[in-house]
Amino acid sequence: MAVNTFPQLSNDNDKVALVEVDQSYSYGTVNERIDRFASGLLAGEQDLEEERIAFFIPASLDYVTVLHGVWRAGGIAVPLNVASAVAELDHYLSCASVTRMIANSEYHEALSELCASLNIELVSVDQVLADSVGALPKIDETRRAMMLFTSGTTNKPKGVVSTHKTIKAQITTLIDAWEWSENDVIPLFLPLHHIHGIINILSCGLWAGATVHLFSKFDIPRITEQVTSGTYNVFMAVPTIYVKLIQYFDSIDPATVRAICDGFAEMRLNISGSAACPVKLFKQWQDLTGQVLLERYGMTEIGMGISNPYHGERRAGCVGQALPGVEVQLFDEYDSP
């Protein structure tokens, strides 16, 4: 991967890339900030040589700055769950052999003792940002780029490393499969320490030249207001989010519910993933909005592997078929094909 392979991230692109609260940031503004952050990380060095840099930041311009800045400087990005307890963070940071932690100043007091005990430098984005852009390294796409931790279903969470090449393949496969374009506008309120938020929404959106609205949490009133006004044309969530929306509908007047559902109906795509969508919920959402949810399946280890089609029949209770470039084989309970 070269210094920057995201085609829309360039200094001369004035299109809006990110919206955070009431502030909008163009692709050019974001790109220049990423370069300054990467330059600050390097601090005169030629290449971070895969230094592990963790960051404890919610969905924001700062998050995007750090993720891409670490990549451009030649480091390995280790995004952390901002809801993690100290014991969990200790496990992640130790396993990843992190040397630097980037966090907003509001988190420094809670993180300072842990970082000191692990000999990790704790800094904020503003402390790292350089005044000007320096020389950045050329990064081979086979180099390691990101470490994500599994959810720990069967044991302690394990660190999974992806290369720049793997990340690019995941993004471009989904852009083709789900027909992303620069006309898309999507809210991002999912956690940014898993594939769903990082790759499926944020990275696909920025690669395609779309606009991503960033939320530090799932703010139902604000998001549904934007849905009603027709701001978004793509919506991706986990099944519990769709459940929360339906429950919210029960607490507001019918006319408002109808306006929100009409807003969803106008979208080109609604996706559900990260957990199985109950058939009952699938049908409820279709009855309310007319949207046939597109279910897909993926893992931290591989990204997305299986998806219902963008065009064609989407079946309730099914995750679809293999995405291009993916081979799938079914095994029974005895591990036999």
What's the arrangement of secondary structure elements?
Blueprint: E1 16-20, E2 23-26, H1 27-42, E3 52-56, H2 61-73, E4 76-79, H3 86-96, E5 100-103, H4 108-117, E6 121-123, H5 125-128, E7 144-149, E8 159-163, H6 164-177, E9 185-188, H7 195-208, E10 211-214, H8 220-228, E11 234-237, H9 239-249, H10 254-265, E12 269-272, H11 279-289, E13 294-299, E14 303-307, E15 321-322
Parallel strand pairs: 1-10, 3-4, 3-5, 5-6, 9-10, 11-12, 12-13
Antiparallel strand pairs: 1-2, 7-8, 13-14, 14-15
Summarize the structure.
This protein has 337 residues and is an alpha/beta fold.
Protein described:
The chain is an alpha/beta fold and 337 residues long. The protein folds into two domains: 16-164, 3-Layer(aba) Sandwich (Rossmann fold); 170-322, ANL, N-terminal domain (Rossmann fold, 3-Layer(aba) Sandwich), CATH 3.40.50. It contains eleven helices and 15 strands. The protein has helices at residues 27-42, 61-73, 86-96, 108-117, 125-128, 164-177, 195-208, 220-228, 239-249, 254-265, 279-289, and strands at 16-20, 23-26, 52-56, 76-79, 100-103, 121-123, 144-149, 159-163, 185-188, 211-214, 234-237, 269-272, 294-299, 303-307, 321-322. It has a five-stranded mixed sheet with strand order 11-12-13-14-15. A four-stranded mixed sheet has the order 2-1-10-9. Helix 4 links the parallel strand 5 (100-103) and strand 6. The longest helix has 16 residues, at 27-42. It starts with 15 loop residues before the first strand and ends in a 15-residue tail after the last strand.
